[in-house]
Amino acid sequence: MTDLTLADLGWSPFFMSQLEIDELETHTPARITEVHRDRVNALSETGPLELTLDPGITTATVAVGDWVLCLPDQHRLTGVLERQTELSRGTEYHTGDKQLIAANLNTLFITTSCNNDFNPARLERYLALAHDAMIAPVILITKADQTEDADGYRDQAMSLGRHLEVILLDAKSDDITEILGPWCGKGQTIALTGSSGVGKTTIANALTGGAALTQDIREDDARGRHTTTARSLHRMKAGGWLIDTPGMRGLGVAEVAFGIDATFPEISERAAQCKFRDCAHETEPGCAVQAAIASGEIDPERLRRFNKLKRENAQATETIAQARDRSKKFGKMVKSAMQTKKKNR
Ligand SMILES: Nc1nc2c(ncn2[C@@H]2O[C@H](COP(=O)(O)OP(=O)(O)OP(=O)(O)O)[C@@H](O)[C@H]2O)c(=O)[nH]1
Ligand SMILES: [Zn+2]
Q: Where does the chain bind GTP (predicted)?
């Protein structure tokens, strides 16, 4: 792969504008394709690179899809460019900080199937993360050929928001490249998410022409198991880039209040008219949301899931804030201890 231009890789004026004059002469821009424990793989105009990180940059702060600057001869990654978008999630038990999933996405393909995998609450979780990150969500519902009521699944998915893109698929027989074409062209980056078994690999193979399967086999890596579960960036036949996200089970929400409101617009709009600003929309007098439930304008199940997600988000956000506060205080303590030591010398 040596015939790719920066534009082919997804480069845009947004990234160009972050470079200093002449920086292109000294440094090479590259796009991260895989993140490992102690190094990353990237793709530049001249082909694949394996890079180690300069001091101050850790693999926890680099994501697949990132644009970076590097010194290829020295195999050094010297800096990460500001992201256009960033998809992250709360960790499973909301202990520490959030976990980066992917960078510089235009679209999130949220995959589910016409069977027991279909779960409105989980779809809303994905929608909240996508909306919060300003990444366009598209819900893909596979196995449409295995049910009598595919339209019922589509209608249910469409009811989870306004103007939602929902696409029914028979991932095995449909022309995936044609149907998903609008999101997969040059300059576009998408991430493919969903539970195990919903057809992600089938879709990825159709979009990339099989690259998803073959690229995972890396004979030069002794820890082969590591690579098969890693997220990675693949070129699609239509010219865009696909990030697959295997092994993403827990999907916690944290710091996504905006995304939750955007996922439940019928509720958040009403909530603005409640008598109390901190209304929990339960038994409070003057609750505009409860009034809309009574008149049948809001689905009570949506309110139940909205409240649940809001509570989880508030708790996780608080935990993260406390953890950040602690590490800031610790930093100050260390600094002042060092200053005292200096003074006492
Ligand atoms: N009939 C039918 N089968 C499908 C469809 N989509 C996927 N399958 C089948 O479902 C099984 C699982 O598909 P995969 O593409 O491996 O699913 P996955 O999401 O990659 O699953 P993991 O690899 O476990 O993450 C395979 O046997 C597919 O052939 C569909 O739309 N219709
Ligand atoms: Zn209310």
A: 142-145, 194-202
Count the alpha carbons within 13 Å of 314 in the hemisphere toward its beta carbon.
9
ipTM attached to this prediction: 0.90
User: Which ligand is nearest to the Cα of residue 195, counting in written order?
Assistant: 1
For residue 215, give Cα distances in angstroms to 47, 187, 195. 14, 21, 21
> How confident is the model over 301-342, as pLDDT tens digits?
999 999 999 999 998 888 888 877 887 777 777 777 777 766
> 143 in ligand 1 pocket by Cβ < 6 Å?
yes
Strand partners, 195: none
Asked whether 212 lines ligand 1 (CB < 6 A), one says no
Q: Which domains does the chain have, with CATH numbers?
A: 13-80 (2.40.50.140), 86-244 (3.40.50.300), 257-343 (1.10.40.50)
User: To test ligand 1's pocket by mutation, which of 111, 172, 216 has the most ligand atoms within 8 angstroms of CB?
Assistant: 172
Ligand 1: does its nearest atom lie under 6 Å from the Cβ of 142? yes
